[in-house]
Each structure stands twice: as structure tokens, then as C-alpha cells.
Sequence to fold (403 residues):
Amino acid sequence: MKVLIVGSGGQGAACAAIMSKFAQIDAIKLTDLDENIPKKIAGHIASPKITAGALNAMDPDAVAKAAEGYDVIIDLVLPWMASYVMQGALKAKVNYVNTAFDVPFWDELREGSELTLDSEFKKEGLTALLGCGMAPGFTNVVARYYANKLDKVTDIKMRIGKKTLKGDNAWYMDVMQPWNPGWSPKQALVDCATPTYAIENGRFVEYAPFTGLEECDFPTPIGRIPVTHHSHEEIYSMPKTFPGLLNCDFKYYLAVAPAVFYMHGLLDETEVEVGGVKVKPIDVVVSKIATPGDNFMAQTAEKLEIADKTAFVEMIVEVAGEKNGKRVTYKANLPKMNAPGPKLLKLFGTAMVNVALPAVAGAVLISEKPMPGIVFADELDADRFLEVMNQTGYDYKWTETVI
Fold:
């Protein structure tokens, strides 16, 4: 299998490193608008499978030309660019995978209308797999895994918690160190400032950013922390793929820095005048945040060992419904995927597997079993997906509770 990666930021770099270890992947072309970025990353990974090149993701013809002779495109640029890269995939007649999406798909899913380019992908017998990263992506696969154990699914609840522990001021580290989402800072902040929805009694209900505050219990050392509604793809796609779904929501740990930025208007994209100069507040904030590519290049076993002991992320996916006429709830506590860091670094050349590895697994699955049209991660074979991940030597495990 030959793969074209569009976007060489933090996730594109990790994706290339991981794919270089897959026996079934023969060639990887890593691209970005600035050719120097993928060249630097390719040199760092040092795999003969990887080549680098320049590519404008918003030019479907250029994308199609770059994809000639390849089998699948993995799109890791900003979510709003997805339709441009998808058009390029159609022109090149190759499958397509991304890890995040928004316009125009969110509105189309919410309104129940035909998805942009769905009929075109079906006509060509090609698959466009949308939202196959960690969340969305792995969360969807886990939801499908448990849905398969039920006769009927009525409720899906997702929570993400995070805590950094370090020194005597452990509980204050979220505000005493620079904030960095690990991927596009601007897109992460835009997501924080975007109103979102939840499914309640089978209907979409809109919520403002940082609302729906609740305290959620995560395993130690995260413990009990506040979470709020957060703009996320699962809310839009799950009603389509789980017929009869009545209630569904996604809540994210209360990220202190973005919350403060938002409450003070610093995530606004409307220009304001400061000292005679017009600026967008969000651009000022983004200018002070480290780029995600720096994270990939800076990984060392020593730093990752410290991160394993100090930085914790936990996902909860709760799926409820009926089995043999009885109410059953499955609760999965999914620990940090980027651990143990030193082992992952040795295995893949990166510990940043949480988004990139599910994307690669998704690409493998749609190459094995085509699913013409636009599909989502919860429509994949969950058992096979987990098998592909585990075959890499990545023995990720989670705990399960049945209520």
C-alpha cells in the first residue's frame, strides 16, 4: 500500500513515522505547503519508504497529481480544508482518510441532508473515512465495540480528563506552564470558542462554549475534575451511525487557559485596534504558542519517561442500551494512549500515537474492505481495527465496567 500524507505538522510527522513500521505499507509521501518541513521530518525519521514534497492542500488538482500511483490519502491539515483534499482524492481515484472534520459536514449531519461528495465517492467505488484519529476516531471504534454487544443503543457519553502532576505545585501545573494542545493551536482554540450540540431525547440541543459544567470522576491520579460541553465530531456523526440514539454528549476537561482566553474575548476573530494597529485577538494568542511540529522533533526517551509520570489523560466512553430486554451500560476507562513513552519511541520512532495510529489502522481497514462513500470510524469492524493496532506491538488496554 502506498500512502500520501497531506500535512506535516505534529500528527503528519507522527503518522509518517508509524507507517514506516508497517510491513504492508511500501511507500509514504509526506507533504506540506513548505517543502522544507516534510524534508526535515523525513530526515529525522530516516526511513527509505518516505519521500517529501511541497503541496497546497487547497488545490484539488495538485493533490490529485501528488496522489498519482498511491492508494490512499491521509489528510492531516485543518478540518475545514477536508473537502478540497477529498476532491483531489476523487480526481486521483484513491481512498481518503482524515482525523477531524467540520464544515460542511457538521451542518449536513445535523440537518440529515446528503453529505458533500458522498455520492461521488460511491460512484467511483472509493471510501472517504472521516474522523479517524483519537477523538473522533478511537472513541467511535470503542463505542462500536460495545454497541455490538447490545441489541439496541440509546445513550453514548464521552468524557476526556487531563491532569499534570509535577513537584510541590502539582495541582496548579495546568496554569503554571505554557498551554499546548499538541496539534494546531489555532484550530484547538477555535474549537474551544465554538458553540456545540448534544443529543437529548433524539434531538440536537445547542450549547454555548464552556457550559454544561459537571464534575466527573476519573481514575487516580486525575480524580474528580470539572468537564464541559465541547465542540466535537462524534455528536454529529453518531446519530447517523447508531439509529435510535436518544442521548449523546461529549465533554472535555476544563482547560483553564483557553477558558480564560474565551471569557476575556481573546479568542475572537473580529479585528480590534490596538495602538493604531488592527489585530485579531486569537492571532495574538496563537503567536505565543509553540507549534506542534516542535513536539515531534523534541521527543527523547528521558523526556517521555518524565511525561509518563507527570502527564495523564483519560477518556471515558459509556455506551448504554438494551440486551435481551434489559438495560445494560458498558463503561470503558481508556488511559493515556501515548504511554509508555520510551517503549513507543523505540517501537514507532514517536510516542505521539494517539491520533496517528488510529488513522493508519483506518487506512488499512478500508484498503482491506472497501466501503464506498463517506463513512465514520464507528462503521468500521471494531475487532479488526483493534487487531491491526495490536499487531504493531502496541499492547494498549483499558478497563471495562458493566452496569
In short: The first strand starts at residue 2 and ends at 6. The domain at 138-336 is CATH 3.30.360.10 (Dihydrodipicolinate Reductase; domain 2). The longest helix spans residues 356-368. The chain has two domains: 2-134+348-402, 138-336.
